[in-house]
Design goal:
Elements (H helix, E strand, L loop, with lengths): L1 H11 L3 E6 L2 E5 H11 L14 E5 L3 H10 L4 E6 L12 E7 L18 E6 L6 H6 L3 E8 L4 E8 L3 H8 L3 E5 L16 E4 L6 H12 L15 H17 L10 E2 L7 E2 L1 H6 L15 H5 L5 H12 L5 H16 L1 H11 L5 H9 L5 H20 L6 H9 L4 H10 L20 H28 L5 E5 L3 E7 L11 E5 L3 E5 L1 H34 L1 H27 L5 E3 L4 E6 L4 H4 L8 E5 L5 E5 L6 H16 L8 E5 L3 E5 L12 H15 L5 E5 L7 H19 L2 E5 L8 H4 L3 E11 L2 E10 L7 H7 L4 H16 L2 H13 L21 H8 L7 H23 L1
Parallel strand pairs: 1-4, 6-9, 8-11, 9-10, 12-22, 17-21, 20-24, 20-25, 22-23, 23-24
Antiparallel strand pairs: 1-2, 2-3, 4-5, 6-7, 7-8, 13-14, 14-16, 15-16, 18-19, 18-21, 25-26
Helix pairs in contact: 6-7, 10-19, 11-19, 12-14, 12-19, 13-14, 13-19, 14-16, 15-19, 16-18, 17-18, 25-26
Length: 878
């Protein structure tokens, strides 16, 4: 047995091995220690002389324990018995049937239905074997990703600096990297992404090409459009197929194509922006609830939810493609009956994409086929409901729906409804589907009826009223008689087992019927599974048609969900233009507009155009600056996925990139402080934004000293204005920056309105023209529960600093210094953190009339002042 275990362990590498032994799965050695700690299992051993650590659990708990380990980031190999113990000669044969990892999960119970479960692989050009190939691929990375639960497969080539952004949007469960790929660690988040090292040869370009040709059964890959990418994309795609072949031990025929992903077709959203805007997960909890995706998802099917997630991750740039989606949503908004019936019929649709993957891998159950039937039965209703659709895309999707009538009829007559979740439960083939199966079932049922009649007959003949017929796997059928009636046992009873208070017997007549019943049962079970497998193969033959239906249903569901959202939340259809402008009337934050009580959110207008493309927004803490700039970015993103937007009216210029630098965070594991992260993300924006980009910046420069921060913020605004010229919303506490409006044509000041009375303030959350003159930070600290002593002392310090008059002087100095706007002239002045405290000597100097002082008088004054200063130093030192 342990030799079998060693061979299985060798085959599964670093995966934890679940080794089937009878009714249990066992783990041994270090695997047992890891599993015992992670799953709360008891760590034990076979005997004291052989102290091999082991831990186990009943086989029926496999899914539960497997799911827990996968969520913890482990890989698990399942080694099952591949022979029937009843017929096996000697030791039962065992083999690793599947290696499960976070990126290769297929069990629906372990998957989030609303999100894709991606397995990704990366191959940097710097790892290519030949020098000339490395030079040609310098700075490039091939990346491929797939969802084994649906068969979707993509690949592309990106620049190294684009890789973290794409990874952030994909959010893969597992990433395959070459064992020579340690340099990629600097480009990826090491804390949250599970990486699996693979041998470098698995990423070979020629190996990848051959695997792809074999997988898709084609002579050339030209038909897939991969010629537009560097060949490192083939190496990454091949690494995925190699890994799946090693881990799945089953067919991968549901991977019938690979789709080229072209980044230039989509709005670029970098990883910092994706995180800051909380598009798929919230920053605080990392959960979908409360994110943009979480509040927008109105889909009725998992397929629609996953597609909505893909649309959010890939906003479109092409105006015609966006308007095609808008037209379809608009029609569903307008026609309530069509929208509501469409959503009603979608309730009967199951996750066809993942069901087909289970069929292809041979893991589909009778209930899965039942669900496919239910989905096919909904298609005629969906098609009829859209019979009067006028928008081109809705009409196109309607016409492409395939009834698959022949398959539906075959499944309906073959599979019982309801059907069991497992084939071992039996009874999943309908009566009347197969004549031979019906005969065997009748024979088995008749034999059981005979046994019941036989029991009554023996009771009457022997006069033993408590005699009963039983069954177990060891003896088969038997007659059980209590010791009270031992003297009534006939001579033809053959004793088989003695119990404490009874004896068990068999008779020749009983054994004869037992053979008939068990034989019929066994033959019926075997035939039923054969029939089921034939039906399953029939579904596999129709995979292409069914996958087409699944994609159409997902699109219809997503469109209907966005239409319902637009109706419920009073969204408008935005007008799209190629001009550089963002005009929003009464815009609202798409998340807060839903989670806040009705009417609680204050809408705001936004007017960004060529004459005022850079808005400087000042105002107090908690007044809503960050919310406002985020909502503008999110409205732009929603518009470019084709959705209606939370506003009364909107005219939006199409953007090529959306950048958001919002919030503070550090990355201690990489040795980066909060300010370093802030500057790194800002540098990315300044180096890659274009005039067509949308940039939102919040509190740039606050991670360093006051004057360093002001200087950096000032220079960044100048650069965005003079060198990029993109639409920018810049929220800041640095009131000094409001001076920029005087010298820069594209800069416009805005502030968040506040109302004051009786030493109290009310945040109006309304954006108005002009600049703010206070931050009200002490008021906010009081609301946050900071001790009163601190707040009172802070007010005293603030009053002193403001009365010194240095604030205005500093603002004027910065303004004058920036008027030349020549960064090549290096100054040597380093400003201090705080303005200098007021000193009595300053008043004396200001009051002095230099024309009335004699030379000897001047010397006497200097001597006096020097003495006064010396006395102050002596006192302070004391």
């Amino acid at each position: 047995m342990m030799q079998q275990y060693d061979e299985a362990k060798l085959a599964c590498g670093d995966a934890l091995l679940f080794f089937r032994m009878g009714d249990f799965y066992e783990l041994f050695y270090d695997d047992a220690k890891v599993a015992a700690k992670a799953l709360g299992l008891t760590l034990t051993s076979r005997d004291k002389s052989n102290t091999v650590p082991m831990a186990g659990f009943p086989h029926h708990q496999l899914d539960s324990y497997l799911g827990k380990l996968i969520k913890l980031g482990h890989r698990v190999a399942v080694c099952d018995q591949v022979e029937d113990p009843k017929t096996a000669k000697g030791l039962v044969k065992r083999e690793v049937q599947q290696i499960v990892s976070p990126g290769t999960v297929t069990d629906l119970a372990l998957l989030d239905p609303a999100t894709s479960n991606y397995l990704a692989a990366v191959l940097p050009g710097s790892l290519l074997r030949k020098k000339v190939d490395r030079e040609q691929a310098a700075g490039l990375v091939g990346i491929a990703w797939c969802d084994i639960s649906t068969g979707r497969f993509y690949t592309t080539t990106v620049n190294e600096e684009q890789l973290p952004d794409l990874i952030a949007r994909l959010d893969p469960s597992e990433l395959l990297v070459s064992d020579k790929n340690e340099e990629m660690e600097s480009h990826l988040d090491r804390d949250t992404l599970m990486k699996t090292l693979r041998p470098h040869w698995a990423f070979g370009i020629e190996t990848g090409r051959e695997l792809l040709l074999k997988q898709f059964e084609v002579a050339s890959l030209d038909g897939f459009g991969l010629d537009a990418f560097h060949e490192v994309a083939l190496g990454a795609a091949g690494a995925i197929l190699d890994y799946l072949a090693e881990t799945q031990k089953s067919s991968l025929e549901h991977f019938d194509r690979i789709v080229p992903y072209r980044p230039t077709q989509f709005v670029e959203v970098d990883s910092a922006t994706w995180r800051s805007l909380e598009i798929s997960r919230t920053i605080r909890s990392g959960q979908r609830e409360g994110s943009l995706f979480g509040v927008m998802d109105r889909c009725q099917t998992p397929m629609g939810s996953r597609l909505l997630g893909e649309w959010l991750a890939n906003p479109l740039i092409d105006k015609a493609a966006i308007e095609k989606r808008q037209d379809a949503i608009g029609e569903l908004v307008k026609h309530q009956v069509i929208r509501e019936k469409l959503r009603e019929y979608l309730k009967d649709v199951f996750d066809l994409q993942r069901l087909l993957a289970r069929v292809a891998t041979g893991r589909a159950t009778p209930r899965d086929l039942n669900h496919i039937v239910s989905t096919l039965q909904a298609i005629p209703q969906l098609k009829q409901n859209l019979s009067k659709a006028e928008s081109p895309w809705l009409a196109e999707l309607r016409d492409e729906l395939d009834f698959c009538e022949d398959l539906k009829e075959e499944l309906s007559v073959a599979i019982s409804d309801p059907a069991p979740a497992q084939t071992k439960d039996g009874g999943f083939i309908r009566e009347g589907y197969d004549k031979k199966l019906d005969e065997l079932r009748a024979l088995a049922a008749g034999g059981k009826q005979w046994i019941a009649e036989y029991q009554q007959q023996v009771c009457d003949t022997t006069g033993i009223p408590t005699l009963k017929v039983g069954f177990n796997k060891v003896f088969g059928y038997y007659l059980e008689v209590t010791n009270v009636h031992k003297d009534k046992i006939p001579d033809d009873f053959i004793r088989k087992q003695t119990l404490k208070n009874a004896e068990r017997y068999i008779t020749p007549e009983l054994k004869e019927y037992e053979e008939k019943v068990l034989s019929a049962d066994s033959q019926a079970s075997e035939l039923e599974f054969q029939l089921f497998d034939a039906v399953r193969q029939l579904v596999r033959a129709h995979t292409v048609r069914l996958k087409g239906n699944a994609e159409i249903i997902a699109k219809l569901d997503t469109l209907a969900g966005l239409a319902l959202l637009a109706v419920e939340q009073r969204y408008c259809r935005p007008e799209l233009t190629t001009e550089k402008l963002t005009h929003i009337v009464e815009g609202r934050h798409p998340v807060l507009d839903i989670v806040e009580p009705l009417g609680a959110f204050i809408p705001n207008d936004t007017q960004v155009d060529q004459d005022g493309f850079l808005h400087l927004i000042t105002g107090p803490n908690m007044a809503g600056k960050s919310t406002y700039i985020r909502q503008v970015a999110l409205i732009s993103l929603l518009a470019q996925i084709g959705s209606f937007v939370p506003a009364k009216k909107a005219t939006l210029g199409i953007v090529d990139r959306i950048f958001a630098r919002v919030g503070a965070s550090d990355e201690l594991s990489r040795g980066q402080s909060t300010f370093m992260v802030e500057m790194t993300e800002t540098a990315r924006i300044l180096n890659t934004a274009s005039p067509k980009s949308l940039v939102i910046l919040d509190e740039i420069g606050r991670g360093t000293s006051t004057y360093d921060g002001v200087s950096l913020a000032w220079a960044i605004v100048e650069f965005l204005h003079d060198h990029i010229g993109c639409r920018t919303l810049f929220a800041t506490h640095y009131h000094e920056l409001t001076e920029l409006e005087k010298d820069f044509r594209g800069v416009t000041n805005f502030n968040v309105a506040v109302k004051e009375w009786d030493e109290k303030i009310v945040f109006l959350h309304k954006i108005v023209r002009g600049s703010a003159d206070k931050s009200y930070g002490i008021h906010v600290s009081r609301l946050a529960g900071v001790p009163d002593w601190v707040n009172r002392r802070a007010e005293q310090i603030l009053e002193r600093l403001e009365s010194s008059g240095e604030q205005e002087a500093n603002r004027e100095a910065i303004s004058n210094a920036s008027s030349a706007r020549n960064p090549n002239q290096h100054g040597k002045i380093q400003m201090t953190l705080f303005g200098p405290a007021h000193h009595p000597l300053v008043d004396k100097i200001k009051a002095l009339d230099a024309n009335e002082v004699t030379p000897i008088g001047a010397l006497q004054m200097l001597h006096q002042w020097k003495s006064e200063l010396a006395e102050e130093v002596d006192v302070s030192e004391t």
